[in-house]
Amino acid sequence: GTRRRRAAYRRALWTGAEVFVTVGVVLLLLVVHQLWWTNRQARQDADHKVQALEREWGRAGSPGVPGAGPGGDDSGSGSASGSGSGAGDGGQGGKSGAGGSTGAASSRGTADSTRTTPRWSQAYAVLSIPRLSLRVPVAEGVSKADVLNKGYVGHYKGTQQPGQAGNFALAGHRNTHGEPFRYLPRLRHGDTITIEAKSAVYTYVVDRTLPQTSPGDGGVIRPVPRSTVRPSYGYGEPGYYITLTTCTPEYTSRYRMAVWGKLTAMRPR
């Protein structure tokens, strides 16, 4: 009887160990899928879409964006919020307006940049950030399944289109699914952000950064962007703005960060 009890005990331990190892392997595979496979697949899809847009526009490369590679991350590439070393100029001082960029933009008629509203989830532009070696499609909407999880950057519906007066606001993943905004905190004041559309190429310059705010802070994407949670961050005058948003810190969606820029140049394709 004692031997039988011991044998049953050993079988129970062995079965438990097998179950434990099996669960561990399954979890490991899930992590690999999320952190490696989704990035690989999304970056390939995003790169193919960029090439398709260039062919559609009759262009072979990226005009006016020297050094911008086709990948989604900069071996540090990429994106999103989070703590990060020195992003922007701190975003302080809310009364600074768009300054000379407004005049330059209006004098060139940038308000007619995108007359027709793109279809939902349609990729219609290319975002390039040389400092991050980032070059990804911009699609209409911020749906995870239809836009963000494809490795694209999504345009907030209801905000302006590139080159128009107001705020051209974008969102992107910081981790997984291409993670285009993983290294967003690496952006500095004066870095260039280029939007290539069918009819024109728009150049914005990074101006301010909001390191952290709540997910519900809708003020950051208003026509005149200003945080409703941290009002010292933002602007007080109309202008031609771009906003890049993502989750922070990494591997969480507890907070959001934003990088703001101003339009400085536009040229027809």
* Radius of gyration over all CA atoms, rounded: 22 Å
* CATH class membership: Mainly Beta
> What kind of sheet is the major sheet?
8 strands, mixed, barrel
The CATH fourth-level homologous superfamily: Sortase
- Helix content percent band: 10-25%
What's the SSE pattern? Answer: HHEEEEEEEE
Low-confidence stretches: 60-114
Order of the strands making up the biggest sheet = 1-2-3-4-7-8-6-5
Count structural domains: 1
Report the structural category.
alpha+beta
* Average predicted confidence as pLDDT: 80
Instruction: Report the principal-axis shape.
Output: elongated
CATH topology (fold) name? Sortase, Chain: A
Ends apart, CA distance between termini: 88 Å
What is the number of beta strands?
8
- SS strand fraction: 15-25%
CATH architecture: Beta Barrel
Helix count equals 2
